[in-house]
């Protein structure tokens, strides 16, 4: 650890001595400041002082973070630290959870995500999502991909839909494997293929941002490697935020990494710095396996 931050200096001696042991326990008071570089000169998504509550319980505390254009930001941290909750704020998926309340400023290209006039349907087309478990619709491969473009009125003519299907499946790295069976059920594909189909489905509506919530946790190492390659290719055209439990995956796919702890954003910086020279002791404790 190279620098001692003001935040670190404020922390108690007892927390320091706990860090020398094998396991670490920390109180909420010790994680109140974010270190590193939460902000980006090329912000696509800008979040300031975000607080999220489930009923009376606060799950996210004053998180401020930018996600830049054409960058992959990985969100890591121990189970229950709020990664998925924060991710779901970015396309208002939390709206679907009863009792969930989001406060703070969140914007996409400078436009408020939570504005009174915002229609969440087009918002979710602009900010697409890929979930932990591949969830193709019980329809053909072709129908899975054209579903979004049809309901969003992006295309209706067969030739246009065919083009969207081919382009989306190519971008998702699946075209060659499925081009001869587009009329077969999406659910008949392997897990890794199904996840790439879900990525194709997200791409088909021309999103600007793709949110991924542990997209490889149900996949084997080969399918995982394929998705990770794909994430790197997709960065050329999209902004990507990915929640992952795998620090190796965060290191492989992201340019910046954000470390969450007990609902606080403790540290965000370029990925190499976070993994080789973290500023915050909590980050170091997590990446060295002392808790999590
Ligand atoms: N629908 C919900 N209702 C009430 N509390 C919730 C709900 N979803 C999450 N929480 C709580 O919010 C906190 C953050 O959970 P969240 O799922 O965002 O964390 P996470 O870091 O993504 O966890 P994991 O890595 O285990 O998926 C936890 O304390 C969790 O119990």
Automatic annotation (TrEMBL):
Superkingdom, taxonomy of origin: Bacteria
Keyword flag Translocase: no
Region (Disordered): 1-21
Keyword Repressor among UniProt keywords: no
Keywords, sorted A to Z: ATP-binding, Nucleotide-binding, Phosphate transport, Transport
Record-level Gene Ontology MF annotations: ATP binding
Domain spans labelled ABC transporter: 45-287
A Pfam family that the UniProt record links to this protein: ABC_tran
Residue ranges with Basic and acidic residues bias: 8-21
NCBIfam families: 3a0107s01c2
Protein name: Phosphate ABC transporter ATP-binding protein PstB
Organism (species): Microbulbifer echini
